[in-house]
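Hmm, how's this folded?
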Amino acid sequence: MPTTLITNIAGLVTNDPSQGDGTPLGLLTDAAVVLDGETIAWVGPAAKAPAADETYDAKGRAAIPGFVDSHSHLVFAGDRTQEFNARMSGRSYSAGGIRTTVAATRAATDAELEANLTHYLREALRQGTTTFETKSGYGLNTEDEARALRIAAAHTDEVTFLGAHIVSPDYAEDPAAYVDLVTGEMLEACAPHARWIDVFCEKGAFDGDQARAILTAGKAKGLHPRIHANQLSYGPGVQLAVELDAASADHCTHLTDADVDALANSSTVATLLPGAEFSTRAEWPDARRLLDAGATVALSTDCNPGSSFTSSVPFCIALAVRDMGMTPDEAIWSATAGGAAALRRTDVGFIREGARADLALLDAPSHVHLAYRPGVPLVSEVWRRGARVA
């Protein structure tokens, strides 16, 4: 690939504090970036930019790292419009709604599941998401969990085994036997296709002891843990995440002071998913409390057909600023570098020399417009691995 100079960038978010204004965003004005193949080769003031094979004029627009969506559930079939409509009419969300998607997913062909997955990945890419994590969790038997992961792994390196989404309907009367299946035969079949293992640690799903057994078994197979923690109620999920060095504890809505302290003093990222609270009218996570304590926070979509059917990171940024106490700078960082931290990646979520050449141009002079102009499709162009893809 030829080298490409992107110049005349009004405001460039690098997430490198050694750049520009010295803040966590490392904001540069009147900036330029040189892409060399899949890698960023140079970042700095436009006036000092080196020559390149091709030049692209950003025309005074802002540029940000590609979003890193570290939590989604995109291998599924079916529709839960009726559930959403009922919930918006006054009935509360419960984990049992997942069973509707399980039935549809099991009935779908591989081609149907892959078409659905790629549809939502393209949708997210157009909105600036260049790194995707996605999970299984709608098969809940060995065959369907393994095929979900095989399909996901063809489209992203960040694949998570979530056989422990809820207790399979096939084992409704014997949850212990289902835990045995997840930690035995199912894990054996699924581990080769995944990087991560996850569990929904919540009332109605898996308790702390079950979650520990599942994550520990996954670690023994070389999968690193992450966990759905403290979404619907107070519980052991966050403490378990820190104990097992999970990359992230996701949701983190109901936290004690001890939970906040544990996250702040660990390498476990608190991944907040405001699309879920928006779609369920639930209590918002308190991002301000976590940030003030020193915890690392990520923002992600939780895109799934039941409780957060959005692929839009910009929408989640706007929610986080409006309803979760985050500043626009904090929200942008959490949706890029924070997501990278939740995936234990250093090559994405940044615009700096040596990083992967993933970035988005905004139809605005500043990244602040993502929160300032909610609902407006501001992402105008996207580069992924050095290629202009949207």
About this structure: The chain has a mean pLDDT of 96.
